[in-house]
Amino acid sequence: MQPLSLPFLNEKVLFFFLHIGPRRQQNEREGKGPREEGNGGNGAEREPMKRKDHIDIAGFLVLVCLTLLWGLNYPVVKVTNQGLSPIFNSLLRSVIASILGISYCLFIKQPLFHRDIRLFHGFIVGMLFGMEFICIYVSLIYTDAARSVIFVNLSPFVVAVGAYLFVKERIGPLQVAGLILAFLGAYLVLQGKPRTWTPAFLAGDLMAIAAAFFWGATTVYIKKYLAEKVQPIHTFLYQLVFSVPIILVFALATEPVWIIRLTPAIVGGVLYSSVIVAFASYLVWFRLIHSYPISQLAVFTFLMPVFGTAASGIFLGEQMTWGLIGGLCLVCAGIYATNYRRGGLSAKGGKSAEPEGKGQMVGCDPSKE
Fold it and tell me: How many domains does the structure of the chain reveal?
């Protein structure tokens, strides 16, 4: 689930955030000037990874595998919630993934935390991230995983509105159309009640929608205060490490019993959510962002709710109502429309990173899944 991340960032912001900004910081630490930055400095600097101008078959297969892993995480969490209290379950995920992330940073000799205002912003990001996962894990106690994964993926629309209000990014006609499709999709899902529906489902649905708002708020905050200023591994760590305190507080305050029962399936599910999804899959995602055009990567994000809904029906036996299927289609179409950008000139007047005449998709960070 998580994982760090930053759904639906602007392509130029992500390029600076994941590539130019970190290299500039390293050059500043080594005392290099801006001219040396472009020439590779003293030659000891690691050669940048070669970028491709399109997604090849290998990249396509990796993307499909990643979105499949993220989608499967929802039914997995619903299973693990049967043996662990939901907030404590989320706490385990953050703690395990944080330990792995810190170990990885130490292994590659990457400083763990900043010592300036960026550390404060990282703390806020972690708090928002923690609230998101409290809502996700609790929602899966009350509602179906298929419904939860669709509602949580309303976050791109929260980002679109939040970026317009706080980052001054423009919303075009296609983005407005995407927002309308998303609201219609959410309405259809709410109306598509399964045979097992009870009033408790509504509480779970609302918790999943709240998670989408926290996810979107996390992304907008990163866009405004941390993009271009930190390396992706730091955002990854800040979200996980600083989510632990707030999740721990909620677990202590609201859950008197943390462990109900342990089975191999529950232990395996926790390891899947923390090691495979929250840690390993996000490192692979960041590598893809360095290797392929972000605009082409983002088009695949709609597959996550598709896989999550399908997996919930196959493995959990959840009913696939017509309202659920129709809502899923509208939300996926809304994700595409909201993140679509025409080629040509960017909002700032610079040339787009994509060839002219080709559509663009705003890059995303799936670290939240």
Answer: 1
